[in-house]
């Protein structure tokens, strides 16, 4: 697949996935189209060699896997991990604010968001809504208003002369979005506003009593190929829907000889501690269900490898001093091995060597990122999964600018190169163990 076609599909996927719920729904549709079978966790399963399956949890995490033809005790499992969530603004349970005659919504900041870029954007709302179907039964569905319904206006420079020198954002008082004028203060419950909006849509939620919701604001601006020479991708949620989609496309190309798995967890941006997060039981319970004999599972895990795919910090030309001089990844120069001596990333010499060899085999350029020693380092699901399962793990990602902004930037060649590397990894029939000499 050409990089141009790959990027078209990538940007379409990200644009249609404003929340983790939508991201998983869209992954499910692609898996269904490819012949994968959904396995409800509450049901009994009958699996077969060569079978292609997936499970979901909370509607926001998904694990897809192929039961390979090669005995898994010989091959191990080729795993790729990513996450479906991104920093954003989440609507509070009782969000109604009416100030100076304007109706606003109180929001919580989800994850480590850069807040300044959220000002003066055309914002919409998407997420999950739980309704009473009229017979006392609770049902859930997804909504996406798909149009600008709110703005967080900046304070004019005339009223804040120091804004360009030291603009601090108070997340409680400065960022409630403005939705409309409500001079008479008639609106007491946001559910009324939401119900009215749903009544003008074709969704099956229309006309139902809204019991609860999980809703998020997002930027209406669509993903785009940008740059004078079309060298870049600009989009919300590149961290980390880019890796979710890239891992999926690689999985679909890998065939059924190897046992392969794609894990896309929610809640990475807030620590991964949840029923469907990487620091929860979802992956381990699946593996124990597939391979219930402890000794057998230990042998399989020992021959397996997890590639944690999460975006890396590209060296910013205006702030190059924030990088180690020998480890500044460049956009469109290939995916990035992420290394940290304090185990914020799970890469070690062995897993690094394996991935280097795979990239060389696939003719994919590879870079290395190490944080400046005097700066703190972020982390990923890689160390969490390695600690939970004891599986050898490495961290890799696409170099990115403006990580955790409302709009991030990556190279237009890098996601395709990561896809090629992950396809090689999924299909590789050699051993993933490095022998002693």
TrEMBL record:
It is an enzyme of class 3 (hydrolase). It comes from the Bacteria. The keyword Zinc-finger does not apply. GO terms for cellular component: cytoplasm. CDD domains: M18_DAP. InterPro entries: Peptidase_M18, Peptidase_M18_dom2. The keyword Oxidoreductase does not apply. This is M18 family aminopeptidase.
């Amino acid at each position: 697949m050409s990089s141009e076609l790959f990027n078209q599909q990538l940007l379409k996927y990200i644009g249609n996935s404003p929340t983790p719920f939508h991201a998983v729904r869209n992954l499910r549709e692609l898996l269904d189209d490819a012949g994968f079978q959904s396995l409800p966790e509450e049901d009994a399963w009958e699996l077969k060699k060569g079978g292609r399956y997936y499970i979901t949890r909370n509607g926001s995490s998904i694990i897809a896997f192929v039961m390979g033809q090669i005995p898994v005790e010989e091959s191990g499992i080729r795993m790729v991990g990513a996450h479906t969530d991104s920093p954003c603004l989440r609507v509070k349970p009782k969000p109604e604010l009416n100030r100076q005659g304007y109706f606003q919504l109180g929001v919580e900041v989800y994850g480590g968001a850069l807040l300044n870029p959220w000002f003066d954007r055309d914002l919409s709302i998407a997420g999950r809504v739980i309704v009473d179907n009229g017979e006392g039964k609770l049902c859930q569905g997804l909504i996406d208003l798909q149009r600008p319904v709110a703005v967080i206006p900046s304070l004019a420079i005339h009223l804040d002369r120091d804004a360009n020198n030291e603009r601090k954002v108070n997340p409680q008082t400065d960022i409630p979005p403005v939705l409309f004028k409500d001079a008479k203060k008639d609106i007491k419950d946001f559910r009324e506003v939401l119900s009215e909006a749903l009544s003008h849509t074709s969704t099956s939620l229309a006309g139902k009593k809204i019991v609860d919701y999980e809703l998020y604001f997002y930027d209406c601006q669509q993903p785009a190929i940008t740059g004078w020479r079309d060298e870049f991708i600009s989009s919300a949620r590149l961290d980390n829907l880019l890796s979710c989609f890239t891992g999926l496309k690689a999985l679909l190309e890998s065939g059924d000889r190897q046992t392969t798995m794609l894990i896309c967890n929610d809640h990475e941006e807030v620590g991964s501690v949840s029923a469907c997060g990487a620091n929860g039981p979802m992956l381990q319970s699946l593996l124990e269900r597939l391979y219930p004999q402890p000794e057998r599972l230990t042998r399989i895990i020992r021959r397996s490898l997890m590639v944690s795919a999460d975006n890396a910090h590209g060296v910013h030309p205006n702030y190059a001093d924030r990088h180690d001089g020998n480890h500044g990844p460049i956009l469109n120069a290939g995916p990035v091995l992420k290394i940290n001596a304090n185990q914020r990333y799970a890469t070690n010499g062995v897993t690094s060597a394996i991935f280097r060899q795979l990239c060389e085999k696939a003719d994919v350029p590879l870079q290395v990122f190490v944080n400046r020693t005097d700066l703190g380092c972020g982390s990923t699901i890689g160390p969490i999964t390695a600690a939970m399962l004891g599986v050898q793990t490495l961290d890799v990602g696409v170099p990115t600018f403006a990580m955790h902004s409302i709009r991030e930037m990556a190279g237009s060649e890098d996601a395709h190169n990561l896809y090629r590397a992950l396809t090689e990894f999924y299909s590789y029939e050699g051993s993933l163990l490095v022998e002693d000499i």
